[in-house]
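Weekly sync, protein design subgroup
Attendees: M.S., D.O., the rotation student, P.L. (late)

Item 1: inverse folding check
M.S. brought a backbone from last month's batch and wanted to see whether the design step gives back something sensible before we order anything. D.O. pointed out we never logged the input encoding, so this time it goes straight into the notes. Structure tokens as presented (211 positions):
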């Protein structure tokens, strides 16, 4: 690890995301989220250029994210182990004082092009977790993508059934982290990168406030 601590590490982040009803859409794009749903990129604190824009919204039925990646010259690579993917970590209890994941912590790997060329997802166990979260069914997570000449749009909707413990009234704060991995453009993180234990330590994640 560098002896210089990145500026992104010096803060705890809490982001309010809006409630939007109805979501997801029955046809076409799942979400089509407005500018009010943009999740800021904190890489700019260390003068890192972002190539992906992330948006988020929720309602009583679940939680949605969209990612717009630009600056590519080739389409995303297909396959479940593709270098083109978005990782999302969600803790439905926002337990900022633990260093090993609980059953309320989830890790999803979102693919703009899975095997067969369609968008897809994988749920992965959080490393070193004390207890794994229940496995989400294919019906409880919806993924949609559009590929264009310089990137892609990826949208994902996690129903309440996919997120163990999801309860916007009783637990209106969620732990959250993301990583955008791109075969051409590299990696973009919500905050600090893999020099820190962001893939398995919930205390490193930010907070989403369900406003």
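Designed sequence read out in the meeting:
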């Amino acid at each position: 690890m560098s002896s210089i601590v990145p500026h992104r590490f010096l803060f705890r982040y809490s982001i309010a995301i809006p409630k939007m009803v109805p979501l997801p859409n029955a046809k076409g794009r799942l979400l089509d989220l407005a500018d009010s749903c943009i999740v800021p990129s904190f890489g700019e604190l260390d003068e890192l250029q972002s190539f992906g824009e992330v948006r988020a919204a929720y309602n009583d039925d679940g939680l949605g994210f969209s990612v717009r990646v630009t600056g590519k010259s080739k389409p995303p690579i297909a396959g479940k182990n593709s270098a083109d993917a978005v990782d999302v970590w969600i803790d439905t209890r926002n337990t900022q004082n633990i260093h090993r994941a609980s059953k309320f912590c989830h890790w999803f790997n979102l693919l703009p092009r899975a095997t067969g060329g369609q968008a897809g997802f994988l749920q992965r166990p959080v490393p070193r977790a004390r207890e794994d979260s229940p496995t989400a069914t294919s019906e409880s997570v919806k993924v949609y993508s559009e590929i264009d000449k310089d990137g892609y749009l990826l949208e994902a909707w996690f129903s309440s059934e996919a997120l163990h413990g999801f309860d916007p009234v009783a637990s209106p704060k969620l732990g959250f982290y993301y990583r955008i991995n791109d075969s051409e453009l590299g990696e973009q993180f919500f905050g600090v990168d893999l020099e820190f234990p962001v893939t398995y330590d919930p205390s490193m994640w930010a907070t989403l406030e369900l406003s």
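Discussion: The CA atoms of residues 17 and 100 lie 26 Å apart. Residues 7-210 form a domain with the Immunoglobulin-like fold (CATH 2.60.40.1190).
Action: P.L. to compare against the previous round before Friday.
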